[in-house]
Structures are given as C-alpha cells and as structure tokens.
Amino acid sequence: MADDAVIKQVKEANDIVAVVGGYVALRPAGGTFKGLCPFHKDSRPSFDVDPRRQRFRCWSCGKYGDVISFVQEFDRVDFREALELLARRAGISLENESASPQARGRALMLDTVRWAAERYHRCLLEAPLGETARKYVGERGITGETVRRFGLGFAPPSGDWLIREAAPGKIDFDLLEKVGLIAKRQEGNGYYDRFRDRVMFPIRDRRGQPVGFGGRILPTSPLAERAPKYYNSAETALFRKSECLYGLDVARQPGTAAGYLAVVEGYTDVLMAHQLGIPQVVAPMGTALNERHVQQLRAFVPRVVLVFDADAGGETGADRALRIFASQNVDLAVATLPEGMDPCDLLVQRGPEPFLSALTHAVDALEFKLNQVLEREGAGGVEGRRRAVDAILNVLALTPAMPDQDGAIKRDLIISRIAQRLALQEENLRGRLRELSSQRRDDERPQRPRVEETAQPETKRVKPQPEELQLLRLLLADPSLIPDAAAEVTLDMLQHPRVRQVIGEMYALHSAGESCSVDQLRVRIDDAHLTEIVLKQHDIGRKITDRPVRMRELLAVFREKHHIEPRTREIKNQLHAAGDHDQAVELLRQLQNQRVGLEP
Ligand SMILES: [Zn+2]
Fold this sequence. Notes:
The protein is of the alpha+beta class. Helix content is 53%, strand content 11%. It has a 6-stranded mixed beta sheet, with helices on both faces. Strand 4 and strand 5 form a beta hairpin. It binds zinc ion. Residues 37, 39-40, 42, 46, 58, 60-61, 63 line the site of zinc ion.
C-alpha cells in the first residue's frame, strides 16, 4: 500500500489546474478556473477548479474531488492506477509493490507499446530496411517533421524483425503478444510479427502515450495483394478502438483555441491537415463517430465538425449526424468537401484554404439533413413536403431526447426550425413526431430500455441521518476522535450503508494501528463514488471548529437515540400495561431517571 507521504508527494507534484486543464479547457474566473463539466452533458461552464484548495466541483451534477479522484473518474481507473499515472506524469517513481497487479500490468503494456513505437520509428527514420517506406511516405507528401511529430514508423517485411529486436532479453514476448504485435505460430513453437511491410501509425491516448498501432501496407509490397490495406493492433485493455480518436493528443489544444474539433476519416487526413497548419483535426479508428467519441470531444470543445466526402456523406451519414446532434449536448456541424475528394487529396492538391473554408462553412446537422431532403423532395408539392417531414421526424423518433431541461429546449428549437423551413405548423409536427415515436416504441417494445451510462447506484438517493453524517465528518477531519466514537457508536447503530462502510473501515484501520488519513481510506475502499463522499465530508469536517466538543455533543445524541429512547418507549409501554399502583410508581421513577440521563 502506498503510504501517506508518497500520496502527498504525488498530489503536490500534480497541480489540479494543470492536470484537469490537460483534459478540459479551463478559463480563469476570479480565484478559480471554470470549464465544461466532463462528467455530465454540460451546456454552461458548471465545472470549477480551485487551485488553493486543490479541489474540483461541478455545481450542476455535484461531482467533487481532488486531482487523484479526477483522474480516476475521467480515465475510469482505480485509485492505484490514477496514482501511478500522476506519479509518472510528475516523474516520481513509485515502488512496484505499491501498485495493484492491474496497474502494474497496464504500465508494463504501456512500456512495451512505447518500446515498439520507438523501434518502428527508428527503422523508418534511419534503417536501410526502411528505404522503400521512406520513399512511399515522401511520395505521399508527408514531411520529416510530421513523421517525427506523429512518431510514424515502419515494420519491415521479414516476419521476425520485431522479435529479433526484442530477443536480446529486452522485451518479454508474452507482453508483445498481449499488446497484439506478435502472435504464436500455429505449428511448432515460436512467434511471428503481426505487422509486416507496413507504415506504422502509433495510436496515442489523449495524454500522448502510444496504446496501439494502425499499419498501412506498402502498395509495392508482395503482401499487398492478399493482406488488408489497413490493419489495427488488437483490442487490449489499453486500446479500445471504438473509443480512440487518432490525433486527439496533438489536436486538443489547438481545438480549444479554434473552438471546435474536426473529425475526418483517415490517419493521413489528420497528418496532412496538421502539416498544413490546421491542427484541430482528429479521426476515429475505422468506425463511425459515436456517443463516446462525442463525449471525449465535448470535454475540450463545444463544437464538433464532421467532415464528409461529398460522395460518402450520404443518407446514413446525415442521419447519424442528426441523431447525435439531437441526443447529445453538442453543436454538431457537417462540412462537405468538393465531389470525389478526401481531405488528404484536397489538402495536397489545393493547399489549406479550401479545406479550412469547408470547416468554417459547416452547417449544423439539422440544416444538413433539411438541405438533403429538400433537394430530393423539393419544397413545393404537398406530397414532397410530407415525405421530407417524415424523413426527418423518423430520425428524431429513433433518438432518445436528452433527459434534462436542455434536452427539451433543444427539441423545441429543432421542431421550430423544421416548421419554419417547411412552412408548417409546429403543433402538427409535434403531433406527427409523437405518432412516429409511439410506432417506434411499439416496434421496439420487446427490447430492454437503454441504460444511461451515468446512472448512479440506487444507494445514492437514500440520505444519511444528520447525526451519522456529522459523525463521519468529525472522524474524517479528526481521526484522533475514533476511539471515543468506537466506544459509543457501534456499526449496527449506523443505518446508512455507505456511512457504515466508511466508518467501519476507519474503525478497522484504527484497531489495526494504521493511519486513518483520507488517503489510506480511499486506498482501502477504492470506489469512486464513495471516495467522492469521503473527500466532500472530510472537507466539510475540517471547517468544523471545536471538534472534540462537537463529538461529545454528538455522542450524547447517539446515546439518546439508541439507548435512552428505546428504553423510555419500553417503560411507557409497561406503564400502560401496569396492573397495580406500586408497579406504576416504580416505572414512573425509572422514566424520570431516563429523562435526566441516569441509568435505571
Ligand atoms: Zn457535472
């Protein structure tokens, strides 16, 4: 277990504004920094980062914590992993025993991918073997600077190049297999390289750490006939293809400055845009843009511009864009390129201006869909307009609305814009949408309802009793009060499951003679939601003055509630049932003693 001193060192070396600022665009506001909350669909900057107290807080969804819990929540890792990430960020080396096996495994995989990226990169830059690849990259118009910036590499064709590089005991074959770079031969033993004769594009996470690779086969390769043109390294704990955005590590800062991020299709589109001075460009990994992508982009920018090739942006592309536009708190726009050109061709052939102009003239996804259907149906005829309306409302009927007030407002705006463009009554449109939605619901009834990713566990809704909360605050702020509390308040006296769990851990740490600091506690409980409660109540507790006095008062409340009240009730019941005078007098005397707090 990492001790308090190490955790403290890691926290001090990672200023919360700098760390959070790497994920979320922050602007100074008074003594704090404000940004869009990355944990809910935020429309106004509700997210506050306080450098003095080293805490973040969302005024809208209530998320709260310190730099470690931020990383835990954002990267969905456990406490130890978050600690490791922050330690690595600050150049602090943690003893290996301090890491969970999961975090150690992850760190080893990261090291392995980084090692391989470095080897491939060297090979492309300087190895004689890399000559053909260098020529190919040059012919595509990619400069040496871009090659270095994006860490491009080359995997030679031999089939055992990487294995030989790793062989002098440098890198564990098991790990190379685990990150998807080599595989076991089917017959006999030994391994082979999975990437052969390919230009290697390291895929980095948003912090710039390589987590996987995309490889493009050289067009001149003898393997090109039967092998796929592009090939990705395997899905691993590090590399989730459906969530990755190529180029996000280098695009996020320029994106924040530009106010938007553009989404293109391929690696070379990203490279070329960047090379020609349009760095706010990313690409998904061979999948269409999905909600998870949008949420990541939303952490940096309010606006996302989807770039369609004129021929590829057909019906499904437009519908998907409209669905994301209607269901997510994002300003999603669509940019169309001249017929038959992908961004890379356009940039190489005509320079940056036409591409940049397409980005700045992007129209929002609703406008794009409206233009598309009106072009097809024409706005004149009654029947054409009816089909146009249904084409759009059918997409909306399939789309879950955003749950909050923002969602209702966005729906309203969408409906009123459609009404305007098609010269129809809003009321009629709403009626038709309800009709289509209920048809959809009937169609889909057997399916299970979609579960919101952000749904909180049930227990959050049950509030703890005030005295339980107060006890938690006092103990967190002042662990020296634990013995007094433990002597009076047993765990079965605590009703709220989470409060009981935290206080139980504190009692346990104390009786084991260990430190009861908040950091030790969070290592032990290792639950993001519970950690949030602990941090929040700890901070409130530290503001309470006269804590020993408050504790004495609080313990009296517990005594009253758990010993005196039940006993009093019992005596009263007996009194009602008492048959003779003497017995009643005795019970009344006991009741009096109860009231003044004496034991009977
Ligand atoms: Zn929030």
